Queue: 2 jobs
Job 1
Amino acid sequence: MCGIVGYIGTKDAYPILIKGLHRLEYRGYDSAGVSLINQGGDLVVYKAKGKVSALEQSVSDKDISGTIGIAHTRWATHGEPNATNAHPHYSQSHALSLVHNGIIENYKTLRVELEKNGIQFAGETDTEVLVQLIEYMQVTHQCDTVTAVHLALKNVVGAYAIAVLDKRNPNQLICARKGSPLIIGIGKGNDKAKPGESEFFLGSDATPIIEFTDKVIYLQDEEIAVLNRNGKHAITNLDSIKQTPQMHVLQMNLDELEKGGYPHFMLKEIYEQPNAIRTCMRGRIDPTNKDIILSGIRDNKEHFMRARRIIICACGTSWHSALIGKYFIEEAAHIPVEVEYASEFRYRNPVLDTSDVVIAISQSGETADTLAAIQLAKQHGCFVYGVCNVIGSSIPRNTDSGTYIHVGPEIGVASTKAFTGQLITLILFGLALAKEKNTLDEVLFHQLVDDLMLIPEKMQQTLEKTKGIEQFAKAFTYCKNFIYLGRGYNYPVALEGALKLKEISYIHAEGYPAAEMKHGPIALIDEEMPVVVIATKRGMLYDKIVSNIQEIKSRRGKIISVVTEGDTAVKSMSDYCIEIPDTRDSYAPLLAVIPLQVLSYYIAIAKGRNVDQPRNLAKSVTVE
Ligand code: F6R
């Protein structure tokens, strides 16, 4: 959840590090810091509470020279967010500095041991234990820093991505990872074998690196890399055995990371959805033969054909898309689907066997609980399939097969286009499986494919219809609570709408299946309670939700509805109404969620919230 940047080369490190921190700020943002070996050979550390801009202000009169450095933006797990607990941390002698993502679980035991041996700590973080331990190993074993890093990491329980500077060796940057991602960018000059132009970049994801190079190495668990100024690098495992890394070419460009004229990444990402899902579908639908081409299923047919059930593990928004996926896959492919919170699944003793297929859904591909759920499923011999956005992230690398949603980088903390990309992918998955299992008749299958191809255009029309939301959203800034209701495929949309509102406006919101109101929540309804109802018009549930709305209306609740174009019944009962184009029930969530994203955005804006970086949240939750 925190962000790491590193640089070693011939250029000034500070501007590269600060720019990288700004790009990474979406991961965590309660404090930031930078460490450099400056021209005078001093190892300096500058830190500030707050955003990266606060750090920039605090160094305005400091020496920020130097061509090697590490930097960090923090989302606190241990120790309150302040400048002392911010990274980088010094070792006791100030010869080493270190940044860290992850959690050192045995830090208390290690700290007690180090304190017994006379080491004094400046702050409360688990990270400081790590840098002190490295120095302690160096002193007690009389070894170089790289060896000391190996020795220290062997004593550590937990997850880490670290970068270390050593004042006595300004020509090397040391980094390591276990359970927390770390990417090494290979500078363009390194190829030319001209030591004068060589450089390395380091990032906890690709965003701080992409501007400089597209050639990267994804460090693997328990690997330690030494990056030298002369362009050479060496990667070993914890037992000092040399590893041969694979070079990857990044498939994203800088434009995708910029706001492109929108005031916030979230709004940009909401508006990107029609094109994002076009990309998601590209090459996976054969329009001529009305077929679905999903190599992840085709190449692993035997696992899917013998599967007796599918279990989907995910967190947050991805869990909501899993619920919709369950409805669709069960309906299309006639296979039972269970949906689990990854955080619960990993600590239960689930009954699993080798015929189960487990699907892990994750935008970031780095969510710690989802990764742990995958490990558990693999221990039981299940076939594990990943649905992720970030290419090369940990989940795709730890699953047997899978499908990328290909919606491009999602920077806003509140997930939007990843949700609709996940839905499309799960629909494609359900259709591909139905085809293999022959569970749908051909006419219906072709209709489903045809209707799916119309969705990007209908999303565009939906966006047009959200124009009035900005104005009426202002009326709801005073509210302390919201209720969201939906039925069938639209029930998880209600959950997702409520989550969006909670996370960016800090208004309490709950999503319910509409018929559950009578069983308790209806007691909450009065003239102060806004109720958002998703009441799209197809199938038998429409009439039922009309009755549910009447129950709320008669208790003077305020109705904001999302209805199908041409609707009259719900519209006439609504205080505010947003129309969306008609589509089949199973595809309605793809459109219905858009007004809810827009509504939460404008309520949060009217309340003056920071929508891209809401308080207490981080984009990828790489700790439990
Ligand atoms: C909500 C949101 C989170 C994530 C959750 C899982 O807008 O973004 O609820 O959906 O943290 O993250 P991923 O999908 O990266 O595993």
Job 2
Amino acid sequence: MLKNKKIMDCVIIGSGPAGYTAAIYAARADLHPVLFVGLQPGGQLTSTTKVDNYPGFPAGISGNELMENCQKQAERFNTIIIHKPITKVYFSDQKGGIHRVYMEDKENIIESKGIIIATGSSPKFLGMDKEKKFLGFGVSFCATCDGFFHKGKDVAVIGGGDTALEEASYLSKICRNVYLVVRKNYFRASKALQYRISKINNVNIFFCSQITKIMGDNFLEGIQIFNTKNKISQTILISGLFIAIGHSPNTKLFQNQLNLDERGYIVVEKGSTITNKPGVFAAGDVQDPTYRQAITSAGTGCMAALDLEKYLCLC
Ligand code: NDP
């Protein structure tokens, strides 16, 4: 495929629910998709514990298993899956024009009439001193990946959204105490998760609290938090700090090629996945600052494949 430089119909960038759903639909429409898995194969769901709100799984399903199933389903319809990083893209301005996706090796270029971007989003940093230094040495973005290292110890989770409460719930089963630090006096998380957390004895919630210092020399030893209501600071000794304060869209690769909003999300035409470049479509979290659910990502992945199929028919 790469050697004779055949021009493809559909290249998908990203392997979360949006990417794999796009692949399943594109493959079944005979568009012979090529899918780049990206830096986190399977996307963010692979670092989630149990997915309870994806329809069709009455007992829930693990994030990893769900994504493995999606991959198998895409492969069943002959999606070509590539595990190489993309270094650059060129998107044509012409209707029916040829887009290019470059890999590390300069000879390795894929040309395609259609591109579906499903690169998702990545967790945000607090922007504090020592946060990056201690990444992997106490600071983490993934309880399922790193919780085991803190078995029987005390840890903190920062954030008040669904991710933070999921992480706290998971860690409560492994750790002695979980300190949940929330900057407002209420959660942003769903009522169902709030209820679940309220029933766990070893999750201690600190509302109106901001983290002011990350402590330790070579690895994390504790944090200082400040209560903005009663103006009291306190130190919490912990071995793990799990940051769950939201996400930023993965759009760096497309900055000079596509219209992005002020937060960096790809702008699509309302009710579609159409970007400002003909033949380039965006699905999932990379274009959705609002819903950001696995099911909505999968839905827009389907839309992107249908939008591309229609575009190719009209070219
Ligand atoms: P959210 O953006 O929903 O929540 C981020 C949380 O972090 C908020 O409580 C926010 O506070 C807080 N925060 C942001 N910046 C800071 C900061 N600098 N310092 C301290 N706290 C900060 O992100 P999530 O990752 O939780 O969720 C993203 C999406 O994924 C949501 O749509 C969510 O519903 C979905 N999701 C669903 C799950 C499920 O259904 N089981 C599981 C996980 C995620 P504030 O409220 O003050 O802004």
